[in-house]
Amino acid sequence: MKIEQIQLVQFRNHKNLSYGPSDGINLLYGPNGSGKTSVLEGIHYCALTKGFVTAYDNECLAFGESFFLIKGSFISDALKQNGVKVVYSSENGKKLTVNGQELNTFSQHIGSIPCITFSPAEMSIVNGSPVERRRFLDNAICQADGRYLQSMLHYRRVLLQRNALLLQLKERFHSIEMLDILTEQLSEYAADIVFARLRFLEEILPGLQAFLSSVSVKEEPGITYRSSLAQSVYALTREELQNRFKEQYAKKKKDEIARGLTSGGPHRDEIVFFLNQHEIKKYASQGQQRSFLIAMKMALYGYLRDKLNEKPLCLFDDLFSELDSSRVEALFAILATFGQVFITATEKMHGSAVTSINFFEAI
To answer: Are 271 and 133 in contact (CB under 8 A)?
Structure first.
């Protein structure tokens, strides 16, 4: 996948920017506040209908403006053209148009323009709360598996309905038959989610090991999935997972009604990262954590490329800070084998693989 042209109108600190990148590695450099990251975020909006720096559309409005517009022209590895337009206004919200057709459901677009990101804020995937690691898995798998995205949406809807019903049952008598129906549905979607997450972690681990070695990290990585089922889930089929969830919800029915809350499920699961059998979050240095996350993103590139038969766009914000020169060189060598790559930096950097260097000035 390549982007041929992107236009940002009243988006963050860009009043009207048109940018046509090259096919290989594009370096965007300049002082902080010059709009480098905003270009990456605009591309991310076109790919995944949201920013990766902030979750709120209204925070991307240029100061004093009431709307922003992003237009991107993309071409796939199979030479299929994709025109994407994202418009957000305070009054009308966000609208997405793809090849001239407005999409009512944004999920239809996910996976059409695969991309991976790196930003310093994403270090929370490694050292933050469990919700950050679950979000990383969900965002990654959704790009490659439309069924997973639908299961996630259905699971969240049924979970809200079930929690609302549990509160009603807690406060007054209510028909419990509906709880059994929602429990059946929730168990089905929970099984889909956990099964897909386990397969993803199994498939991405070899790539993670390979990329860590290539950036001079000799530690052995590991990943453990801790399910709210409180037992090993690795060898279970999707159907067995569904039955285990139904059994767990049945055992905890009285407790859940007393609390008015669903006690377990993939929305409470934890993913734990290790180096040499030591939990990264607790024992790894900041440099080790950063190298681990970069390697994880590199492995995700390979995963999406193989699943979609399409090279993802790479949006790397401040990728090289805190890395020594040998690791920078190793990363450049890896990225030279990728497709279209965007890297931001505060200083001009030279590498034989860099095909375009663009300077941004602070406004």
So the answer is: yes
**pLDDT digit string (tens) for 347-358?**
887 666 677 777
What angle, 0 to 180 degrees and rounded to 10, lies between the N-to-C axes of helices 177-214 and 325-335? Answer: 110
Measured CA to CA, the distance from residue 252 to residue 283 in angstroms comes to 35
For tokens 């690791």, what's the residue? 327
> What would the pLDDT profile of 38-88 be if each residue is shown by its tens digit?
999 999 999 999 988 777 899 999 998 999 999 999 999 999 999 999 999
pLDDT tens-digit readout, 116-169: 999 999 999 999 999 999 999 999 999 999 999 999 999 999 999 999 999 988
Task: For residue 199, give its domain range.
Answer: 128-308
Last residue within a domain, chosen from 308, 340, 355: 308
What is the count of structural domains for the chain?
A: 2
The structure tokens listed for 91 are 């009054």
What are the residues facing 358 on neighbouring strands? Answer: 28
User: Residue 158 carries which side chain, given as an amino acid letter?
Assistant: V
Indicate the pTM of the whole model: 0.93
Q: What is the C-alpha separation between 201 and 45, in angstroms, rounded?
A: 26
Report CA-CA distances (Å) from 222 to 212, 273, 282, 286, 291.
12, 6, 14, 18, 14
Do residues 201 and 339 both lie within one domain? no
